[in-house]
Amino acid sequence: MQISTDYLWKTISEIRARLPFLADFLTTFPTGEIFLVGGAVRDLLWGKVTKDYDFLVRAVPAEALKDFLKSQGKVSWVGKNFGVFKFIPKASPLKEAIDVALPRTESSFDPSGGYRDFSIVSDTRLEVKDDLKRRDFTINAIAVDLKNGLLIDPFKGISDLETGLLRTVGRPSLRFSEDSSRLLRGLRFASQFDLRFEEEAWDVLKSLIGRLNLKREDGSFVVPRETIAKEFIKAVVSHPLRAYDLWDKSGAFAELMPELLPMKGCEQPKNYHSEGDVWEHTRLALSQLLTPEFHTEFPEGFDAEVALSVLFHDIAKPVTQQTPEKDGVDRIRFNNHDNVGAKIARKIVNRLKLSSYPKGSRYYVDEDHLSWLVEKHLLLVHGEIGQMRAATIERHFLSPRTPGRKLLQLIYCDGLASVPENPDGHLLHYWSIKERIQKIEALTSERAKIPKPLLSGREVMKSFNISSGPKVGKLLALIREEQLSGRISTREEAICFLKGRPDALSEN
After folding, report:
1. Considering only Cβ atoms within 10 Å of each terminal Cβ, which end of the chain, N or C, has fewer?
2. What class does CATH assign to 182-443?
3. pTM score, two decimals?
4. Domain 5-163, CATH 3.30.460.10 — does that match?
């Protein structure tokens, strides 16, 4: 990976233009030094635009740096020993604070592998190379000198990026033992950037993976569940299939989501699932999220709720499986696995704090949404789509109260991963429901949204002199079906329609 001096200076100039405080820093502190570190350096080397800025400052006293940052924007100090400022520049295009840190050394004083069990000392005189050697992986131990236009790469991280190798800085046993969250970070990097582990690092990672469930004397986890959630979700959204395989082969699933493992060897009826057992079916379903066909069908892409719904949609098949030999059924069946699976998914979300990312983020997981998606993934299997009420389709796929578009994505992936021995009907359910949805949307295209109901429950009760109860809901559903089917469109037509249904009005 050859980086020319011209390209490096061009990139530095672009970063300075994006973040004007950098030029002011160099003017204010002519003998100071500032370096770009972390993920932004990887992006620079790959020719990507980044928003993930982290800076390292040396040869500037901490208080002087703090005063300077205050003059340039909002700043908070994450502990004097840590030497890290959270900084938001004035008129910043960035949504989150960036880190501006002093060089520091770290030493672990507890072998349990908790990051808070570190002695961390910042030192403005420390050489950059000494700061970089405390970092986890070589690809994270690269710095760009923004003053002199130099790349600093003491551990050959650039070469590792070029060859796709994930290697620790120093001995893997030491790096992973210092901080067990690095085990998950490694799995995430390997998934996100399609890297292969250096052999020793992989062996050590597998041997230490059980540390993820270690607890302190007070009962708290050494590795917070929120940390596990953030690393796992970012991995599975970055590359669902690679994350699935790595979490399995490393033992992370066995430690953290053991409910998934019984899917291995759980047989399915071959006439519906010639692709293999439930594990292979789930793997095939996850792979659909990465295909060009998926992104053509769903240009908006997928998020964490979709990825996890695909991962968990058949998680209850092993516990609900019935076989002719054991249960006397006509074929292998998984009765109620959708509802049981929804409960299991909810438990995993709560246990591992999978809702840790902020709302609005691609990585956020709404517990109710995820549970609903797993529960409804068989919606199209339970009946003829042509006979499905328009109101039912509206409620599941077009209502703002439900993640209907995400349910379509799950149904699409599940359908393509269900390979029948007779392929003629492959994905028939998906295309059929898509056609029904388009017809309903066509009826409302001029209004730009689904039309409001023609009558309220109160109006139905007043017009037909009936009391509140289930009958009102049934009458409203009948009207809604006619409205969405295009057969009525006004309040008066709705009342006339109900008058013509004495059977419904007289029903107890």
Report:
1. C
2. mainly alpha
3. 0.84
4. yes
